Amino acid sequence: MVRGRGVDRQEERVQDHSPRRQQRDPVARRGRDEPVASARTPAHDMFDVDVASRSLGIELVGAGAGAAEARMRVTPAMVNGHGIGHGGYVFLLADTAFALACNSYGPATVAAGGEISFLRPVRAGDVLTARATERVRHGRNGIYDVTVLRGDEVIAEFRGRSRTLSPVAGPPG
Fold first, then answer.
1. Residues in a beta bridge with 2
2. In the predicted model, what is the mean pLDDT of residues 67-90?
3. Fold of the domain spanning 28-149
4. What is the pLDDT at residue 148?
5. pTM, entire model
6. Contact status, residue 35 vs residue 62, Cβ threshold 8 Å
7. Average pLDDT over every residue of 23-38
8. Cis preceding-peptide flag for 121 (omega within 30 of 0)
9. Which of 14, 30, 115, 119 has the fewest Cβ atoms nearer than 10 Å?
10. DSSP letter (8 states) at residue 86
11. DSSP alpha helices (H): ranges in the chain?
């Protein structure tokens, strides 16, 4: 609220929809409910050999241009002693979507850190979707946000920091 000249008024939030912003911000290019591209990327190749994620039933819905979407059904084996889904599995789903987004370009990129805020509990049978979006990439570093949803309901918010690996030099020739 802005106060001025005896009149109270709401300050409007200005949205920058310029082409320049759209080039640097994948969220500006794609709405929250819009599906992620499904053309084959280096992220697909990585996921094909990701035994940890695939063995938990995580599915790659789509990945491309710094964004990704992954889905997982919460199984009874993922429920903790309180009868709710263990947060580690929700984190793993978010981390997988983050990994897919930051590896959608190639070369190999790994997590430098991540944190999550759990907003609602999940239960066995819930189908969760994690949508990752690139916020910024600079040099070998990146920041990505992931929203974990149950339908339209936000379950958790995750922020990951990435680091692209240095190329490995070949043997001296």
1. 9
2. 98
3. Thiol Ester Dehydrase; Chain A (3.10.129)
4. 98
5. 0.77
6. yes
7. 47
8. no
9. 14
10. -
11. 19-24, 26-29, 42-48, 51-55, 87-102
